[in-house]
Request: fold
Amino acid sequence: MIFRETVPARVTRVAFLGLWLVITLFPLYWITVTSLKAPGDIFSQPLTYWPTALTLENYAGLFAQSDFGVFVANSLLVSLVGATVATLISLLSGYVLARFEFRSKGVLLAAFFVTQMVPSFIALGPLYLMMTKLGLVDSRLGLILVYIGICIPFCTVMLRGFFANVPDALEEAAMIDGCSRLGALFRVIVPVMMPGIIASFIFNFVNCWNELFLSVTLINSTENQTIPTAINGFISSFNVEWGPMAAAAVLTVVPTMLLFAVASRWIVQGLTAGAVKG
Amino acid sequence: MGGRVTTPETIARRPAAGPRPGSGRGAAPRRAFTGRRALTILAFLAPAAVFVGIFTYYPLLTGAQMAFRDWNLSNFTDASWVGLDNFRTVLHDPVLPGVLRNTVIWVVGSLVPQFVIGFAIALWLRRHFRFRGLYQALIFYPWAVSGFLIGILFRWMFNGEFGVVNDLLEKVGLIDSPVPWLAQPSTAMVAVLIANIWYGVTFFAIMILAALQSVPDEILEAAALDGAGRTRTLLQIVVPYIRITLTVTVLLRVIWIFNFPDIIYGMTGGGPADKTHIVTTWLIQVTQRGDYGVAAAIGLMVLVVLLMFSVFYLLALRERGVKR
Reply:
């Protein structure tokens, strides 16, 4: 910035950025505080903003009243496997789309773009029928396969953006030295691109972790439910129990938040590089 | 943020035709689609194509043809062709006018404040300060949370009896008695909009910041030498320079907000009295009651509208890009 900042401008800037930080963080603070209040305190007036008596009762209640441990395990399994496979596959497709020019490339990119535009609800019914025929309804494997399919388009475009920033001289040198293209990709390019790959993986992981409508459709039994499906069950029941609900919300948010915080810089780069180019 | 960020500006500066830097062996832009090279391309694309084909495109296309069949819970397996009946059902549904109005309010009412606040934050974040990285990471966190869960958080905060929003507003003296935000038709839309604005500002802030950082300092220095003031530099130099990013970002956001029922679904489910129903939450409702044919018809109409919007938008973008 070449302009000198005047004092009033500085005050405005600091005040506004500070205010926005408070506004951004407040919902998270509030749900956390709610989850740590004793069940009776949640519904008592006046509201306490800084509760003195903190308790883990709501968390204990959550695990006692539902199979929350099972839901967490299912979510972890589905998201880890889904995100890993989707990232690996997108690595290949993103590479080709970044490095080669061929005739149907535009069509392919458009086909990926359209998947972001279609309301997925059209697909729910047919998907359910197809998965029934394949014997993959109410199965975590089935959910994983579907998640891989929905992660790939965006992940491919994002990784393509990262590949464009890696000079192709790198893999050409490796190929002259006798590497196959696949070997060059994994031995030379992947190590250089690690931040981008990790960011893509985290992005996929968070998407799978948060996905609701597909899992509600495809999973019936409690033992296969993921966390969002379970939470959906909590709010569909007539009276929302806000104590355990707040605890469930905190437990859902914390892991993905930490992942995002670690990789936010690379995710930002990936989004600005990939999304805009797509 | 650091590192090299590819924004449309850097793309736009590349020559329009010919090989892009870093486009590998594409020295000749269109090579014959034969031999080893073709095999590599096919092999590398095959897994992605298989997954997206089977788990995204097959159900989508099957679903799309269901828009023309009598397909619902009671008629699940052999649905007969009914032509445009489902579309007629949609167009004659008494809910439709309200849903369309709500959708416009939802898209415009979310987009404009998100853009304005996001732009302001991006401008203010451009100047380096201590902990800027930390600040960005902190305001980034809503993205790690699903829209559905955001809906639930705000549903709790806007709770009429024990909600913190009422409590704060009473403390400040803006209201005298608690407002049943989500239970009364006149305020429910305001509440869901606030939640969505809160959720989406970061996206704009980050995209616009990346674009701002792509404006070369020389241009700003030249403007300063010519005696342009701060506001003029911003409006006549910076904004035109990052125009492409701005337009593409807005396009992506419109599509995304249009297709984003999650917050409303978690907060109000479309109620009270359908006052917060947008097209996609309505689509969920129709799907859940088992009218799959009608749902598919709605989905197809959404797709057509968004595609037309994108095409017009991109054409307008290209036209202005050429004049530059």
